[in-house]
Amino acid sequence: MLIDKKFKIIVRLTLLLSINIIMFTLSPIHSLADTLINAKTAGLSTSVSNNNQRLQKIIDSHSKDKTTIYIPKGTYLFGNGGILLRSNLTFNFAAGATFKINNGQVLYFVYSSPRAGYTGGIRNVTWNNATFVGNDINGQSSITQSLNHAQQVHFNNNTFYNCEKPNGHFLDIDGSRNIFINQSKFYGFNTDEHNDYKEGIQIDYSDRTAMSYAVSSDQYDELPSYNIYVNNNYFLPVMSGQQIKYYAPNPIGEHAVYNDGKSGVIHNINFTNNVVIDPKPRPNINRATINFNGVNNITIQKNRFINIHTTGSANYIRIYNPIKKSVSLKA
Asked: Mean pLDDT in the chain?
């Protein structure tokens, strides 16, 4: 690991015996060093059935550095449990690199928050070109990103294939801000009629009951998520030949307001330039492909909802405000 020490020059002008003397003081600027890790060289393996501990060790090995983890081509299997992320992480996946889970198991990438407030969690996490794959053999397996008080998180050009939790989400964004989801693909939602309203990308509050993965030491404070940008993505069905096996996921939304919005409501949500193909038809106007219960300042524009193998819905977008009084916005 190379550390580039930088210095700043402080110039002081001092008058001594009527002579201008320029004094220079060198002081180091303390900044995070950049570390690049090849995950396969560091222990991630395509020949084991569970890489959870191996990836956790890689993440923890440079806990104070700004770290980029390179995932070489190959399929890496994972099992039940949570992998705790930290601040200042970038995952760069090579073409053909895949994280996969089987046999009804559930994997979580956990953005924990040991302190309350928007600054209590982790920040600066980026996923580039990642592929996450589940299947329905021996039960639906899933991979979920569970965020509490996270900020500055980017998902760029990722693929989420048949890995949404049957009663959950691909991305669970709780009490978080400045989350960017761009040019990614989300495939399929294998669920039942009791959970078919669940969102692929859930925008929610910092509340223990809302979390996909609750860390016992985490702090929860009912803060709403805000500044969420979902742009240029595809939400697609899983096909079996020319037939739909699983409808496209419900792209984005939220279905509950916590503490009657006393800590604020979900706000500044942007869903733009996305394509949704063959979502589950909604014959009832009280259900929709995109649903928000209690939201402020939401932009939904330049999206396309396309039905190829399904009939259309009575309602594609439903925004409902159940709060009877005004609330403050937390930012």
From this structure: 88
Q: Which DSSP category does 248 fall into?
A: B
Beta-carbon count within 10 A of 204 CB:
27
Token pair 């604020």 is found at 264
Contact 147, 121 (CB under 8 A): yes
Which positions ≥6 away from 290 have C-beta within 8 Å? 250, 251, 252, 253, 271, 300, 316, 317, 318
Q: Cα 70–4–34 angle (5° rounding)?
A: 20
Straight-line distance from the first to the last Cα atom of the chain, in angstroms, rounded to the nearest whole number:
38
Question: Given this model, what pLDDT does residue 322 score?
Answer: 79
Question: pLDDT band at residue 323, thresholds of 50, 70 and 90?
Answer: confident
Work out the number of other CB atoms within 10 angstroms of the CB of residue 209: 10
- The reported pLDDT for the residue numbered 260 is 73
Write down all domains in the chain, each with its CATH number in brackets: 6-320 (2.160.20.10)
Q: In whole angstroms, give the CA distance from residue 92 to residue 71.
A: 6
Kindly state the tokens that stand for 256.
Answer: 């509950």
Tokens 């959970």 appear where?
A: 195
Residue-level pLDDT at 176: 98
H-type alpha helices, 162-279 = none
CB crowding 180-192: b at 16 or more within 10 Å, else e? bbeebebbbbbbe
Identify the pLDDT of residue 101: 98
From residue 6, give the alpha-carbon distance in Å to each of 32, 34, 107: 11, 14, 41
Q: Give phi and psi for 259, each to the nearest 5.
A: 55, 30
Query: H helices of the chain, where?
Result: 52-60
Question: Of 7-11, 72-76, 285-289, which one has max mean pLDDT?
Answer: 72-76
Rounded-to-integer distance, Cα 265 and Cα 142, Å: 29
Q: What is the pLDDT of residues 152-183, one digit of tens each?
A: 999 999 999 999 999 999 999 999 999 999 99
- pTM for this predicted structure: 0.87
